Amino acid sequence: MRRFFSRDVAKDLGYFVNGRIFKLQNEYTRRDGGTPSSRAALARLRRDLDGGAPVWMSIGADLFEDWPQTLPSAEEDPAALRAAKTALELYALHQQSRRSGVAQGAEDAGKNRMTFGRACRLINPDTEHANGVKRRLQAVEAAPDFNGVVRNVRSLIMLMRTAGDGAITLDYRSLAQDLYQIQFPEARGEVFMRWSMDYSSDAGTRSRRS
User: Fold this and answer.
1) CA distance 82 to 183
2) What's 51's DSSP letter?
């Protein structure tokens, strides 16, 4: 079992999750209403996020299909599995009933990557009146375990779904990496530092308005 955060694992995990998400997104947002398999997969992933215990046999193909050899097994690094599973489930919640993709595409990333902190800023760009968003971000940082982190991140994803025109996108590659890193005490502070910097800076809101 891995006891220390690995940047190599985080990088490979982010690319794997992004690939899985964009496969689902491309199928779900097709002009013909999406494929039945993509709709079913998103429904399974949302249902598992709601449950008290994972239904592994239900979501196994959605999660483990094409699991790369560069990533450790669940026994070697359970934090990687938890991060991948959670990122996919949060995406499924975010995408629900949206006909346009909510996962940020590579062509829109680069310097304007919609990290979790920047996406949270867009829920209410007027930070003086965004106390609810700030409280939830503080609750993520104060959560005593990973389940608490997930509950509070989920509440922010729900706000992204309903804010304004509901078109806030998110870089899920970045989020998957953060969800992995946040599980290691020696590395979690770096995640919250980035989220705070991205939330407090207005760079994301400027790029959205331009």
Assistant:
1) 9
2) S
Q: What are phi and psi of 145, to 5 degrees?
A: -150, 175
Rounded CA separation 203/193 (Å): 16
Q: Which CATH architecture has domain 7-209?
A: Orthogonal Bundle (1.10)
Dihedral of alpha carbons 209, 174, 51, 134, sign: negative
- Range 64-89 burial, b when 16+ CB lie within 10 A, else e: eeebeeebbebeebebbbbbbbbbbb
Cα–Cα distance list, 53 to 33, 50, 56, 196, 197 (Å): 31, 9, 9, 31, 34
Q: What is the mean pLDDT of residues 78-89?
A: 94
Task: Answer whether 5's CB lies under 8 Å from 190's CB.
Answer: no
- The pLDDT assigned to 164 comes to 67
Q: Identify the CA nearest to 91 among candidates 151, 192, 164, 17.
A: 17
Examine the pLDDT at 206 and tell me if it is beyond 60.
Answer: no
Q: Model confidence over 150-199: pLDDT tens digits?
A: 999 999 999 999 886 767 999 999 999 999 999 999 999 999 999 999 99
Give, in order, the Cα–Cα distances in Å from 155 to each of 39, 89, 111, 158, 160. 22, 13, 26, 5, 9
Which pLDDT value is given to residue 209?
44
Residue 170 pairs in a beta bridge with 103
